[in-house]
Design brief:
It is a single chain. With 341 residues, this protein is mainly alpha-helical. It folds into two domains: 75 residues, no CATH class; 236 residues, MetI-like fold (Orthogonal Bundle), CATH 1.10.3720. The protein is 75% helix and 0% strand. Helix 5 crosses helix 9 and helix 6 crosses helix 9. The longest helix is centred in the middle third of the chain and has 38 residues. The two termini are 16 Å apart. 32% of the residues are buried.
Length: 341
């Protein structure tokens, strides 16, 4: 336990230069964005004097080095700045919007894993069968169909034509009150409050956007599961296990799937990282108040503090995710230990 704790501490220490680089790069790139935030917030009818006054108020008249050190000083105190678009502290905006994106992304990943991993395993075990062909069709469709098209199609069919789904306007229908905020996840908070009606309403509202993202994330997970299982099933230890008379389920799931899970977990981490930052199209289609749409709105308005806060939050999430993936490696295969890395 002590060795593992030291190893985790070393991993966390190695992320410090990465986070410093993210802070520097995000600061420089936001200043390189086209447009003048002072002119944007002064209004289209503002004259040069008014724009200059707004620039001084925002502190944009100072040299870039001065602005950077002021930003770092605030950052060390836990202050990410104030968003010019919303007028609220960036930390408050992120705390409100990040759980919405995480709830949507995690729900989509759980749904896609429940479909993709068994489908990939069956496609590998029954190579060339109709299950294998179905897996290839789903993978091709998932990669080919844009998420915004899939989302609009699902809204048209299940909301407009059939009337089965609620209106695609946010995380909860207007007739329901938000559950008392504990985690920011409506599904969890409604259960903690014992409000099953709100839980069911949240689940209905989450269904279409989660299915839209799940169809997109299903493709790489199913493809990697199939490829990893095919490689595992052709290994010498699998042939030895079969020759020893072990049952089919023991060979496929006890040996094959367990060894195939390592690349699948890596793919899951990559998919999660990509989808969390790139699900803005789904958020726009379903009016989902997530962090992706928040970042896009901040980019359009050249809202420096909001963009920098978004990038820093994504960097911290990815660092945490990589650490969790490393921990999962050690759990899946005990031969992989922290001390050997």
């Amino acid at each position: 336990m002590a060795g593992r704790g030291r190893a985790i501490g070393m991993r966390l220490a190695q992320t410090v230069p990465v986070l410093v680089g993210v802070v520097v790069i995000s600061f420089v790139l936001t200043r390189a964005l086209p447009g003048d935030p002072a002119a944007y917030f002064a209004g289209a009818m503002a004259d040069a004097a008014s724009i200059e006054q707004v620039r001084e108020t925002l502190g944009l008249d100072k040299p870039l080095t001065t602005q950077f050190f002021l930003y770092v000083g605030d950052l060390l105190q836990g202050d990410l700045g104030r968003s010019l678009s919303t007028g609220q502290p960036v930390l408050t905006d992120l705390a409100m919007r990040l759980p919405a994106s995480l709830e949507l992304t995690l729900s989509a990943l759980v749904l896609s894993c429940l479909i993709a991993i068994p489908l990939g395993v069956l496609a590998a075990v029954r190579q060339g069968s109709w299950v294998d062909h179905l897996c290839r069709v789903l993978v091709t469709a998932g990669v080919s169909l844009p998420t915004f098209f899939t989302g609009i199609l699902l809204v048209y069919v299940f909301y407009y034509l059939l009337g089965w789904a609620p209106s695609p306007l946010g995380r909860l229908d207007f007739i329901y009150l938000e559950p008392p905020r504990v985690t920011g996840f409506y599904l969890v908070d409604s259960l903690l409050a014992g409000d099953l009606e709100t839980f069911a309403a949240t689940l209905r509202q989450l269904a279409l956007p989660a299915i839209t993202l799940a169809l997109f994330t299903l493709a790489p997970i199913a493809r990697m599961t199939r490829a990893a299982m095919l490689q595992a099933l052709s290994s010498d230890y699998i042939r030895t296990a079969r020759a020893a008379g072990l049952s089919r389920n023991k060979v496929v799931f006890g040996y094959g799937l367990r060894n195939a899970l390592l690349p699948v977990v890596t793919t899951l981490g990559m998919v999660f990282s990509f989808v969390l930052g790139a699900n803005v199209l789904v958020e726009k289609v379903f009016a989902w108040p997530g962090i992706g749409s928040y970042a896009v709105e901040a980019l359009v308005a050249s809202d420096y503090a909001a963009v920098q806060g978004f990038v820093l939050a994504m960097a911290l999430l990815f660092v945490t995710l990589n650490l969790l993936i490393d921990l999962s490696y050690a759990l899946i295969d005990p031969r992989i230990g922290f001390g050997s890395k």
